[in-house]
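Listing S7. Sequence submitted for prediction.
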Amino acid sequence: MSFIHVEGLSKRFVVRKKRQPGHLFREKTSIQALNDVSFDIEQGELIGYIGPNGAGKSTTVKILSGILTPDAGQALVNGMVPWKNRKSYVSQIGVVFGQRMQLWWDVPIIDSYSLLKDIYRIPSGQYARRLDELTQALDLGGLMRTPLRQLSLGQRMRAEMCASLLHSPQILFLDEPTLGLDAVSKLALRDFLKRENRENKTTILLTTHDMEDIAALCSRVMVLGRGTKLYDGPLETLLARFDRVRSVAVRYQNADTLPALPKGVQMKKEGDTLLLSYQPTALPTAQLLTLLQQTGPIRELTVQPRNIDQLIADMYREMGL
């Protein structure tokens, strides 16, 4: 059996609406957060779990973390049921929620780590080695005596990542870990996750709206929409289905030069720059570049693939999400 086996997972929440004037009770509505979701993850995989807001990503993570109990279905993580074997199970997992902190707000982070050492019953020698490893990898050396409340958002997220990995978990669940981080902090965190996955074979399930995180880290993605799994496979295959339009900006040495292009290529002129839009499935990029070069001497040319976020937005719209 796979390291993480999920079959037929379903979860429904009852939400109470605001009480209307003249009514004694608030109306209730039922929301299907997960609907018959199944998947398998092998040990050591780094999986992207994506979908629009309300798709059920965080609900899945909470169930697999043992925080929530599903209404139907089963989940086995390393042979254990997360919500039934909580005490033995939580010692094997790490969880980072981008909007919630597990460290204590007003104390130096090293004191929080010392408490986590006792909670997880980590042997002193193992704790010292692991803390030193994570401190260097996450660049936390100068922050250990600083209370969490005095750290920047990026520093807090690095400190949270360290806390979640102190006990060397086999599985790491990440729910929006780069939320609100600047570009430098995101790059550093991505590099760390690659290293942790590669060197320690840590299985990682990453949920995020930042598709650059997915592109940089994950070769396999699962797409969730309205509580249902819509796609499970390589990221490249998913993007290829929606990478239908690309752009080329070209400037000829003679500003009046206009190339003769096949139907389907849209062209407009801005100053001395020609802006072309085309479908790579209908006209391969190499063929288009050959046509442009044959037209005349080129001064400058730029090929611009579509932004990954735009591709995923198109995918959501096409799937009706």
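Caption to Listing S7: primary sequence and predicted structure tokens for the chain studied. The first strand starts at residue 4 and ends at 16. The chain has ten helices and 13 strands.
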